[in-house]
Amino acid sequence: MRSYGQYCSIARALDVVGDRWTLLIVRELLLRGPCRFTDLKNGLPGVATNLLSTRLKELEDAGLISREDAPPPVATVLYALTDDGLALEPVLKALGLWGLRFMDAERPDDAFQARWLAYAPAWFATDADPDAPPAVVQLIASGEEAVIEIGGGEVRARAGRAADPDLVLEGPARAVLGLLTGVIGIDAATGIGLTTRGRAADVLARLRPVG
Amino acid sequence: MRSYGQYCSIARALDVVGDRWTLLIVRELLLRGPCRFTDLKNGLPGVATNLLSTRLKELEDAGLISREDAPPPVATVLYALTDDGLALEPVLKALGLWGLRFMDAERPDDAFQARWLAYAPAWFATDADPDAPPAVVQLIASGEEAVIEIGGGEVRARAGRAADPDLVLEGPARAVLGLLTGVIGIDAATGIGLTTRGRAADVLARLRPVG
DNA sequence: CGGTATCCAATATGATACTG
DNA sequence: CAGTATCATATTGGATACCG
């Protein structure tokens, strides 16, 4: 990307991460941790391999990521965020929080991944009742599965299945994510296809959307 | 910009504001308030008029800005941020804070404006001694002038001159801004050309960089 | 002042093939 | 698997001219 040529920290930041795909690559590295080229490609549906390759070089030159030779079992290169790259987390959080307002439009051919299901509640909701015992919620949205644990004032999340969840939320991504991030209420979520198994009222009352 | 086609709030946000120039247009509207096409053009050195025009239409379609007919004295269209547009302020703050790390490279042909001098201390520094009487600091960097007032726990800023400042900081933008945002110390700033008039130690001790 | 219109250059996309 | 390479096409951006 050509530089904006402005001595302003916002313009400077955009000189580095304003290119198409760049911030989404950082998102993947942030959500996955160090990972391989193919992992990144899978997490970025639609990106061309040559473009991904170019961007990774640019990010390395800018000092945002590093290439590490993985130890024997993997025996390949892992891309990882440096400290400067990790420092973008607040930017992605702010952007993602702002972007929630556009999540009501779920288009039929949108890609969707368990990882994106997981980060939303972890980043955009908190535990309003830190002293209550931890609660585990299984999320199933548009076929993708994630687990959140609410407890100690925080919400933690990961992709996958829980053995014995206190609550299961299942339905279209728009319903599950909308409910968890506070964009819509339980009635509206149910109206667009959410189903619950377990003590929904108790657990959901603890979730407080940030902002 | 073509959509990323991902049901993820970060990708959705970038679908709307990920285009080149878009966030800088929002920056200008945020720093200036409602303003005219020409004002935006002046605040965005390097932007082509057709591109600015296109972006303004896109931003209007996305609901981030509105076009208002200004009252008689001005008699033209004013562009203003809507609530959705104003809500981008945390994004720009996060991006600008992150971008400070690239401000040590000041290129000779960079554009620089008083407004960009003003927002940095206001956004990225706080008053560490809220109970002390307010202090007024005149900034002069690379020929651009701004005033900051430190008091009540906050730092406020505007472009222009102060009648009777407690301190005058003058020098290259890199020195003045670096000092105010905590990137460099007073000795380093002096070393690259900063001059001070007034009680520098007292006033600067009150400035605490955020983050 | 507030834009449109036009043209050229640069970049992105997408497909596919190829290599160690 | 982890890319690099190449090519065709589409879209975008930049510069400039122009106009009500």
From TrEMBL, chains A, B:
Residues 8-107 form the HTH hxlR-type domain. It comes from Actinomadura napierensis. It holds the Pfam family HxlR. This is HTH hxlR-type domain-containing protein. Signal peptide: none annotated. Keywords: DNA-binding, Transcription, Transcription regulation. Gene3D superfamilies: Winged helix-like DNA-binding domain superfamily/Winged helix DNA-binding domain.
